[in-house]
Amino acid sequence: MAIQQIKHRSSGLMLPAPAQKHPFVRFLQSLGSHLSNFLLKYWALCLTFVLGLIVFTALSIPFLSYFGLDAIAKPLFFSLHWICAQVPSHSFYIFGHQIGLCGRNLSIYSSMFVGSLIFVLSKKRLPGIPWWLWVLMCLPMAIDGVTQLLGLRESTAELRILTGTLFGLGNILFVLPLVQKTLVEPPIYTYPPMGPMPHYTDTEETHQNTPNPPTTPTEDDAL
Q1: What is the DSSP code (8-state) at residue 185?
Q2: Which of 88, 61, 63 is CA-nearest to residue 77?
């Protein structure tokens, strides 16, 4: 097959025409572009939906078990084991059936869901908290969890709920506004510093700006 060529307007050169992309490649590029635009616009809403789905699943498990739908409740319960240890002594029960998340994780994900929902309803204008306040809100759960893990003390249900709620809200109020600010603000580009401009004296500047006078041909040149 002969190679298609196009003529460059300025130089008159014959250049090969750009190769046509495969329809499947164009489809993938278009799909990726639409997906990236969707996530860029609705990323906070997607996060809120995922957090709400986790909380709803955890709370629906005891109701499903109560109505005899263990075929649905058990797979959902074990699927949440990826994000929670589900210790029975640290969990709450409804109708005698264990909730899918322990008390601390239930408070974490519930507070994160509420915080992200408020962030979305505020049209992503919720101001963020400073980093030091975020650290202070996460510190109580770290102290409560580490001291309990080392066997120094045993936490209570009230402390797990309180520290988990502070931890979840702190993460949402710090991370989500920071992500939104990063997406909205244009990147700042830095350029290398320019060197000093050359300095010319009056004689050098006049000599450079004056065109060279035409030379008169001599007899030696004619020969």
Answers
A1: S
A2: 61
The CA angle 51-57-61, to the nearest 5 degrees, is 155
pLDDT, tens only, 142-155: 999 899 888 888 88
Short-list 99, 92, 95, 94, CA closest to 76? 99
CA angle 40, 43, 48 (to 5 degrees): 170
Give how many domains the chain has, as a whole number: 1
55 neighbors 106 (Cβ within 8 angstroms): yes
Which domain range does residue 114 map to?
Answer: 43-184
- Asked whether residue 51 is assigned to any structural domain, the reply reads yes
Q: Within a 10 A sphere around the Cβ of 28, how many other Cβ atoms?
A: 12
Residues 6+ apart with CB under 8 A from 134: 170, 171, 173, 174
Strand partners of residue 6: 15
CA–CA separation, 111 and 165 (whole Å): 5
CA angle 6, 7, 10 (to 5 degrees): 145
Q: Which two tokens stand for residue 205?
A: 């500047």
Q: What CA–CA distance (Å, rounded) separates 155 from 181? A: 37
Q: Look up the pTM and report it.
A: 0.72
Residue 52 in any domain: the answer is yes
- 110 with 55: CB under 8 angstroms? yes
Say if residues 138 and 104 touch (Cβ distance below 8 Å): no
| 79 domain residue, yes or no | yes
pLDDT tens per residue, range 154-188: 889 999 999 999 999 999 999 999 999 888 876 56
